[in-house]
Amino acid sequence: MGAKETVEVTGHLMDTGILSRILDDIRDYGGDYVLDQFEVGHEAHDPSSARITVEADDDESLQRLLMRLQTRGVNPMSLAEASTRPAERDGVLPDGFYATTNLDTRVHIDGAWHDVENPEMDCGLVVDSSTPGLRVRTVPMTDVRTGMRVVVGTAGIRVAVPSRDEVADSFATVGAELAGERPQAVLVRQVADGMRQTRADGKRLLWVVGPGVVNTGAVPALVALVRAGFVDVLFAGNGLATRDIEQALYGTSIGVEVSTQGGDHGHEHRVRALNTIRKAGSIAAAVDEGTVTSGIMHALVTGRKPFVLVGSVRDDAPLPDVHTDVVAGQRAMRAEIRDVGYCLMMAAQLHAVATANILPASVPLVCVDLDPATVTRIVDHGTSRGRGIVTDVGLFLEQLALELVAGYPRG
Amino acid sequence: MGAKETVEVTGHLMDTGILSRILDDIRDYGGDYVLDQFEVGHEAHDPSSARITVEADDDESLQRLLMRLQTRGVNPMSLAEASTRPAERDGVLPDGFYATTNLDTRVHIDGAWHDVENPEMDCGLVVDSSTPGLRVRTVPMTDVRTGMRVVVGTAGIRVAVPSRDEVADSFATVGAELAGERPQAVLVRQVADGMRQTRADGKRLLWVVGPGVVNTGAVPALVALVRAGFVDVLFAGNGLATRDIEQALYGTSIGVEVSTQGGDHGHEHRVRALNTIRKAGSIAAAVDEGTVTSGIMHALVTGRKPFVLVGSVRDDAPLPDVHTDVVAGQRAMRAEIRDVGYCLMMAAQLHAVATANILPASVPLVCVDLDPATVTRIVDHGTSRGRGIVTDVGLFLEQLALELVAGYPRG
Amino acid sequence: MGAKETVEVTGHLMDTGILSRILDDIRDYGGDYVLDQFEVGHEAHDPSSARITVEADDDESLQRLLMRLQTRGVNPMSLAEASTRPAERDGVLPDGFYATTNLDTRVHIDGAWHDVENPEMDCGLVVDSSTPGLRVRTVPMTDVRTGMRVVVGTAGIRVAVPSRDEVADSFATVGAELAGERPQAVLVRQVADGMRQTRADGKRLLWVVGPGVVNTGAVPALVALVRAGFVDVLFAGNGLATRDIEQALYGTSIGVEVSTQGGDHGHEHRVRALNTIRKAGSIAAAVDEGTVTSGIMHALVTGRKPFVLVGSVRDDAPLPDVHTDVVAGQRAMRAEIRDVGYCLMMAAQLHAVATANILPASVPLVCVDLDPATVTRIVDHGTSRGRGIVTDVGLFLEQLALELVAGYPRG
Amino acid sequence: MGAKETVEVTGHLMDTGILSRILDDIRDYGGDYVLDQFEVGHEAHDPSSARITVEADDDESLQRLLMRLQTRGVNPMSLAEASTRPAERDGVLPDGFYATTNLDTRVHIDGAWHDVENPEMDCGLVVDSSTPGLRVRTVPMTDVRTGMRVVVGTAGIRVAVPSRDEVADSFATVGAELAGERPQAVLVRQVADGMRQTRADGKRLLWVVGPGVVNTGAVPALVALVRAGFVDVLFAGNGLATRDIEQALYGTSIGVEVSTQGGDHGHEHRVRALNTIRKAGSIAAAVDEGTVTSGIMHALVTGRKPFVLVGSVRDDAPLPDVHTDVVAGQRAMRAEIRDVGYCLMMAAQLHAVATANILPASVPLVCVDLDPATVTRIVDHGTSRGRGIVTDVGLFLEQLALELVAGYPRG
After folding, report:
1. Residues in a beta bridge with C159
2. Which residues in chain D have Cβ-Cβ distances shorter than 8 Å to C254?
3. What positions does the domain Arginine dihydrolase ArgZ/ArgE-like C-terminal second subdomain occupy (chains A, B, C, D) (predicted)?
4. Which of C38, C166, C401, D348 is the most core-located residue (most Cβ within 10 A)?
């Protein structure tokens, strides 16, 4: 093997299983290692630290292995400066670009360490000295412009993995785990606590909501949560907004709905609901002119809460508010994640993955779905502090509203 | 085709789709038909009636097709008497035996019509004249004894399918359907209404409960329902009873449970819990001696509610109360279904199917499970009046207790 | 009730259950009916016909109910002409617009019947007299332009439901059904027969493919099918194309793949693969310059087979060939469905629904997926002639290639 | 904390993640620890070793924690002798009994180390000096008899965890993992290799088979494997045997089956098939008298391969060969696992768990099922060397027969 580098990592290396995952990575990337030094915590709560010399066949392989290890909080010992290279073409990163994680990241450049402003995974790192004071931020591939100064290789980059204690702030139990057959009442209370805490910290609550929320009868609960100030911003697709508005427009009583939901009746209602809002020009216009008088979208519009709707190829026709260009939609979502301190994903497959793609790892997220596969996909995604709850979204939101909204369901 | 028979059927033949299913059956069994007469209801609520001449290759095929059609409420026109043949061997029905449905059934024998006492599917019909007044009852294959007088063929048998209105008594919507993405709160209320009505009618409430009820934290809700008189008899396996007792014995707080449930800790606790009860001699003995002081089994024992536990090959060791012989277990279950007017199945796969096997079609049943496949299996099973609810059992029981038990969870 | 209309329907009304579904629809829409006449087929293969007077509260409700009934092949008796109204705004249909089905449809206009050129569901019907000879075609809401002449109401429209026999041409068994636990070898042979027949008929084979096809090791099978001429056009998302190209670029041997697929290694590979193709400018350019030398996309490019890739909000970055605007993507898909005679959907959730949205009901489609919920969603979708097969896509494609490609896997 | 003990563990502690799981266990059991010594392997393939002093509140807690740790291969340093206590009652183990793992276990007793003859989890350890030469064996709770000499506590017991290399013999990749979206062809070949190797080693191949194998059309493949000598013993329930015999008796062609499998037709066939075999007296008798002439059970009987059928409460009536007492059934299964070197579980939920309960951890097992939850349950079960493959059982067996049986499907 030709290329080697010494790296270090500190933390609860053994009781979080992180060290085994590091060694697995080295093997998976075809590398080898020598454990130079290993200071082990003698008692249960002491941190450990390791110094490892990592080898790979050549420098390119080594660089890629080192990028991989940074997702585990492993940083090179060397104090070298980061290297950069200009982007040669719009939408294309230079060869050897540093592929970001969504962890807190610092870059050593021009003699000083700089925090990356908006950690997001699978982006490039762009150094911006156009304003006074150098800034480093993530830029998605689609937004790269010719001439941008992009970090290449792993030199001069340090990544911090959230410690166990930080994570424990938001959840009684540790890390990412599936809830499956867990006591649900306890989980609802923990989520409610996390939401109250987020609000107390002055952070925003982001919801990602799928159309199942309407079908399971959870609209009143979610409307109550919007009104009580527990929804600061909402991401969804055309489906959620359309079903919600269809329910608002065709005010069918629950009884009738129950008996027809499976039928194609709603199908035709949906098409007419879409046409009605397209005619009004926007959801807000339809609310203002008195066409839409209830539902989730109505609550958001009247409560002046922002929402981002992004379409999919599955939509038969988009509402006027829907971003039909998915890259534009992602940009709109990015513009709304500042100050988000907690994220709830409710029966939202596509948009849940999309949101997990752009959120920093430091934002706790809760994914609720009846389908274990959906929940696993989010919770195993990247390095997020995700928690999965396999349960019924309708009953979950009902309980959450009872917990958080005084007087619900009467109020 | 050699053998034919004219049959008749009356009811809402078209709006319930029953006529198409009848014609499908005839085709599936390789038979043919002529629709002799068809009186169609002119308005939406009028019943229709049809007279159909059914043909098959030979008499044996015809008899089997006619048995099949009886599960749809189709009866032969002829007023012939039922034929019988004696069983020649213990545990074996005579050739050509009439295989029962679980529908209300009458048999024309010795010049009079007799109601079958205990409709159960896949049994033989035994005519019993040992007591004054002839009786006809279903007998499972395992309980056939040499010399029993068993009905063969379809002559002289009439079966009644429950009408739409009867079914509508217990549910707002019609027949067997999956709830999946339905408003859960409405469903909980409908189930609660059915339970109250059953109690008001002087009928018994049967529960079939799987071990998931313990894991989802629903023990307090179910205990409250037992104490409030909403559980008259409970069927379960070794797993439910053992996990419930394990929780009672090792009184771990919810917090600890959440963090360990996935581990093998409970595994070892379970083995010790089993040994403890085996030592006491029975669950009731363990309650009496003060070893078990809480939980579902404790509530049943102290409330003098009967339960039937039947083991499976998966059990590592059975509690002393568990029937390890499954045929004996089925007999014990049959002995407890008299006067059952409503059946709730909670996360109980194996025992739910076993109960559906022996219940008459006239008993409404509700099957709640997070896994759609389990729910479908029960709801599509036989000709039952089943309703499936795909949801979280823990949250469902919590809501049901809130609906039915005054003061819950405080009381 | 104020508004009524007499309608008629002919076919195997009872043995296909269609009549019960018609009566269910009337009830679901709050209407009522009188069955004026019912000519019943006396023998199993005779068609029946019914004349029904349908009532609704007002004319608008009646029109909507009649549109609904047309999805069942129920047509009004009256020989009135179709009414039209001009679109007043781009992207918005006029009030009372006729919402299309994907069934064969004829419109009576200007004194003659005209076939609708491209049946597609949830569209408007536009009458085009700009060219010599009047044409009627479906137009999706997004493509409506001010001044277009749009059909409103149900007068003058007749819809034909495919007969049972037509459907039986493509499948041994009838209609839409789930395969779940069915003999898979038989199903593979039936699909192969349908594909050969389609080719013999001079029609095109459309594939909709999800990324799971790469993971399950089915790339060689699908490449063989492309080369043997069994793939005429392919619809997919960014995921399938990216994973396929990633595999082509990072030519990791199967062994290594197996051990790493679950890891984030492929994650980083994917980002670099994306950047590489973006740098080349297009997939075809990357094939031409020798960067991509194997895989599904390579086979399509070298075989000059068209493909349509449409992105989603979940994509981290799109390949240059991907439509990021979903409405533009839908248009590109529509442009490729002419002459499609058979459609195969392989582990493709999002794009499978999108394709089912635009395909005429007359195109048989087969949906293969390991997840029963995905399969059900497609097979229950609209009025398509869909068939679901719940099985492993990798093994299914392997068997299909063995059946269709001489010499596979050696050739 | 009052009680402490020093333990040691050796192996690839970090790269297998075993050390983190050990420390998790200590926490979960409410204990504490000091890491006295930690010799770390400096290069990738060196083993590490650790000496840990474990503390718990009292001696009973400590003993239970130590038993738990033994499932990880952690053994006490002390060379004490094992303690024993006599069983005081049939079917009940003495207090403080050592609860076994299914790992290779040695007991230090009467001054020497003795191998446990038949490692099985959740049993007691019984010391038998009735024959010349002391023997130690596992005894399930149900088979405990008064006076048996049972090991209590953890002193004098050493457990060995299979090393990574041993496991690698049977599978290219390491340990227990789910296959889900993996290249299936590779997996089939690996399983075939494991089966050939087992046969070459003179060990037996155990199959556990569920009724889905019949439905998916895999009977011919499994029959070919029986005839070619790749099935030495088969465990199943009443369902598999009954469906297999039903298919043999009612020899319906595949076409007809496909169209009716979903119906209740098979339901009635099943009841008649059951009665036919009950009349014959046994499956072998029905084969001998020429009633059953094909299928899996026929192949086993004519090939003189043993099978164990154990019933469940779900069976409507058992075949005469079925153990209706589940404890007797478990004993019959135990009697057949000697010399088993490889175990295949095909779509068998209940009996798969039951078999995993009694197999030693040293037997590699492969669990194939379409439902990921079933596969996970087996693979996460105890400490087995299990491998899960989420795929279609029908296609899997077809491919396996092609791989192993020369001339299949022609031969």
Report:
1. C105
2. 183, 186
3. 190-400
4. D348
- Asked if the structure places residue A100 within a domain, the reply is yes
Token pair, residue D287, equals 């084969």
Of the partner residues B212, B262, B395, the one whose CB lies closest to the CB of residue A399: B395
Strands (E), D87-230: 104-109, 112-115, 124-128, 135-139, 149-152, 157-160, 204-209
In chain A, which residue's Cα lies nearest the Cα of B217? A183
CA-based radius of gyration for chain C: 24
Q: How far apart are CA D289 and CA D291, in angstroms?
A: 6
Cα radius of gyration rounded to whole Å, chain B: 24
Burial A230-254 (b: 16+ CB within 10 A, else e): bbbbbbbbbbbbbbbbbbbbbebee
List strands edge to edge, sheet with D3-11.
D32-39, D48-56, D3-11, D75-76
pLDDT at B386: 78
Question: Could you give the CA distance from residue A150 to residue A87 in angstroms, rounded to a whole number?
Answer: 7
C247-C367-D262-D209 Cα dihedral, nearest 10 degrees: 0
Q: How close C119 comes to chain D (CA, Å)? A: 30
Residue B409 within a domain? no
Task: Compute chain D's Rg from CA coordinates.
Answer: 24
Q: Does C252 touch chain D (CB under 8 A)?
A: no
* Domain match, B169 and B23 both: no
Torsion over CA: A39, A44, A47, A51 (sign): positive
The C-alpha atoms of residue B72 and residue B49 are separated, in whole angstroms, by: 13
Count the Cβ atoms, other than its own, within 10 Å of residue C47.
Answer: 13
Subunits that touch chain A (at least 3 Cβ pairs < 8 angstroms)?
Answer: B, C, D
Of the residues A88, A326, A358, A359, the best mutation for testing chain C's interface (the one with the most C CB atoms within 10 Å of its CB) is A326
**Domain-terminating residue out of D121, D136, D161:** D161
CATH for A138: 2.40.420.10
Rounded to a whole number, what is the distance in Å from the CA of B253 to chain D's nearest CA? 13
Pick from C114-123, C379-388, D373-382: least confident: C379-388
Give yes or no for A395 touching D (CB within 8 A). no
- The closest CB to that of D311, out of B89, B326, B371, belongs to B326
- Tens of pLDDT along B222-280? 999 999 999 999 999 999 999 999 999 986 533 334 333 333 444 678 888 999 999 99
Is C192 found in the same domain as C271?
yes
Structural domain includes residue C99: yes
Q: What is the dihedral of CA B376, B381, B386, B390, to 10 degrees?
A: -10
> How close B363 gets to chain C, by Cα (Å)?
25
Interface predicted TM-score (ipTM): 0.90
**Which of B99, B259, B314 shows the shortest C-beta gap to D350?**
B314
Considering the domain architecture, whether residues C188 and C227 belong to the same structural domain is answered as yes
- Tens of pLDDT along B279-313? 999 999 999 999 999 999 999 999 999 999 999 99
| A73 lies within 8 A of chain B by CB | no
Query: Measuring CA to CA, how many Å separate D96 from each of A37, B243, D124?
Result: 42, 20, 10
Total tally of structural domains belonging to chain A? 3
Q: Which chain B residues have a beta carbon less than 8 Å from that of D313?
A: 237, 310-312, 326, 329-330, 333, 350-351, 354
Query: C 347-386 residues with CB below 8 A of A?
Result: 350-351, 353-354, 357, 371, 373, 382
Same domain, C1 and C66: yes
Tokens of residue A26, six digits: 């080295």
Pair B107, B225 in one domain: no
Cα separations in angstroms, D279 against A374, B64, B141, B149: 50, 19, 11, 17
Q: Which domain holds residue D260?
A: 164-404
Across the interface, of B14, B21, B24, the residue whose CB is closest to C19 is: B14
Cβ–Cβ gap A20/D16 under 8 Å:
yes
